Amino acid sequence: xxxxxxxxxxxxxxxxxxxxxxxxxxxxxxxxxxxxxxxxxxxxxxxxxxxxxxxxxxxxxxxxxxxxxxxxxxxxxxxxxxxxxxxxxxxxxxxxxxxxxxxxxxxxxxxxxxxxxxxxxxxxxxxxxxxxxxxx
Length: 136
Fold this sequence. Notes:
- The chain is mainly α.
- The chain has helices at residues 27-33, 37-60, 66-93, 97-124, 129-135.
């Protein structure tokens, strides 16, 4: 958890970040709030860390929800691909509509993944949940 990026948070994109899936911002609004490519890169890095956390849970918690872990892995891969596409587009066209839409998709998937990770921690490692919430 110490590898989560704490210098940027998706809290501004969702009223119930970590507790409920979905965003409450438009694509343009999300792009501004996420500080463009800076937020995209933080999403990319944090998705990788959360994927490692899910893998750790799968290896070390015998009662872990396997479907939830598989969903977290899938979320992380989709988020990372979406971010890379968005950053590549940004490199060519700056903040075009396509870039903002990809950024929005990545942020929305990220909010969903963070909510699922919160659920996983609540069910299997409640003692570290406060640290996760603080880092996010």
